[in-house]
Amino acid sequence: MPTSDQVARYQGRLSGPLLDRIDMMVEVPGLPPELLAAAPDGDDTATVAQPVQQARERQRARQDCVNAQLSPPQLDRHARADPAAQALLERSIAALGWSARAQHRLLRVARSIADLAGDDAIQKAHVAEAVQLRRALVRQ
């Protein structure tokens, strides 16, 4: 298991343009086998797949493609954030020094989170979640 310093050094070797092409990064800590064995069963695949399928259908109905395929002009049309969400997005982009490409990826993820929640507009909570999913990519 690599240490946090090793991970930071490795990420430091990755270029900004490469990191811009990664949408999300989720850290999953290692667990001892006895904890894994004692963990309750999770949802089955069909249960998890249903809301994902509904979100993809919502995307296709709205824009004739899934969010991952939206061009920047399409993002402007279909991934509008409410004022509080837009303010958080702008503050996060500025504070974390993210590029326009990273901003577009963040908007696609926030749009997908909103679709999974069944919301028409991107709200502050959707942007906050998208930032957290991407923030692990920031070099410290």
UniProtKB/TrEMBL annotation:
<dbReference type="InterPro" id="IPR027417">
    <property type="entry name" value="P-loop_NTPase"/>
</dbReference>
<dbReference type="Pfam" id="PF01078">
    <property type="entry name" value="Mg_chelatase"/>
</dbReference>
<dbReference type="InterPro" id="IPR045006">
    <property type="entry name" value="CHLI-like"/>
</dbReference>
<dbReference type="GO" id="GO:0005524">
    <property type="term" value="F:ATP binding"/>
</dbReference>
<keyword id="KW-0547">Nucleotide-binding</keyword>
<keyword id="KW-0067">ATP-binding</keyword>
<dbReference type="InterPro" id="IPR000523">
    <property type="entry name" value="Mg_chelatse_chII-like_cat_dom"/>
</dbReference>
<feature type="domain" description="Magnesium chelatase ChlI-like catalytic">
    <location>
        <begin position="3"/>
        <end position="32"/>
    </location>
</feature>
<feature type="domain" description="Mg chelatase-related protein C-terminal">
    <location>
        <begin position="43"/>
        <end position="134"/>
    </location>
</feature>
<protein>
    <submittedName>
        <fullName>ATP-binding protein</fullName>
    </submittedName>
</protein>
<dbReference type="Pfam" id="PF13335">
    <property type="entry name" value="Mg_chelatase_C"/>
</dbReference>
<dbReference type="InterPro" id="IPR025158">
    <property type="entry name" value="Mg_chelat-rel_C"/>
</dbReference>
<feature type="region of interest" description="Disordered">
    <location>
        <begin position="41"/>
        <end position="60"/>
    </location>
</feature>
